[in-house]
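Translate sequence into structure tokens.
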Amino acid sequence: MGCGTSKSNAVAPEPFTDDSPQKSAPETLALQKKVLKLEEQVDSLQEQVQYYKTSNKELDGRLQRLEKGLDDTKAAVVKVERAAPLPAPAPTPTPVSEPVPVKVAVGSTVSESVESKALAAHREAGVLDESELRFALELVKYGQGHLFREWGSPQEEVEQKTKLVKQLTMLDANYSGGLLKYISNARELLKSSKEGANPLAGWTPSVPEGTALEYGTSEFLQYEQAGVDEVGYAGFVLVAGGLGERLGFSGIKVGLPVEKVSDMTYLQFYCESILHLQKLFNDKHGTDRQLPFAIMTSEDTHAATEALLATNGYFGMQEGQVQLMKQEKVPCLADNDAALACKPGSPFTVLTKPHGHGDVHSLMHTKGIAAQWRTSGVKW
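Result follows.
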């Protein structure tokens, strides 16, 4: 018979059958969607993995720079100690082995920071003077240590570091109460906003009492003459810190035309309106009084506003009658803890912005305009 199996003993294999219930078309579609969603998640996770790999490389590079800066700082300290040995430190209740806690404005405590040590090294190297060091350390205590996080070796990027300190000093001088007060106020406002506090709580809205006047009536004319009598003691303030970009205009907003027949600008309209009120008062009272006009500008609009006035002869007003007060900028905030934001790609530059229309009151005071107007008889 040979080695083969006889035909009579051969057993044919049974065909494979799937005993699971057949999927309906909707169920099949749902499974396909689920598979697609899982594939999308896989792609997303792979992208995240790649991102963190790249981020780790950047962090490794930053760590290496900080370690180099620390080594340079230690070397600078040793050099100073050799040149003039430091007196023994006074005994303190804090054990030497434990770090000294530094109180941060947000309410947390942290150990003496790497930033503080780096700043001290820059003082020893002559990059900072004593007042600049104290100011920088105050900022660190107020949770702004990130501003000095890139301060490695005192010998590196000295110009950029000096520029940052000068900018911070200028921002400190520009804000009433200083930069620390600005940060403190910002934190209070951000906290209230986060908690949903209502700044108008306790106030009851009401419609003020008044008189509805009909144009041309004797009562209207009576009140109009009362206004003419008082307008001679009024000062006029215009906030003009914005550009006309949202209106499709590349210049300053006050340079926009109010109408196209004569192309009269808004600034001309304001000036001529004040001059008309001035004439009404002077003609009635036989005086030669000038009504003062103050304009708040910004870094974006100051030069253009100045040029628009000068090239048009101040639109009939006297040069000394118009006063420009340029609004200084304040730091942008990066988060709800009021961390000052750095310019993207430039860790040695604080990102700034105009302070808003509310700044006009403090500018009137700090520029001496309010006091000057009061002395000259301005009441309104």
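Note: The longest strand covers residues 293-297.
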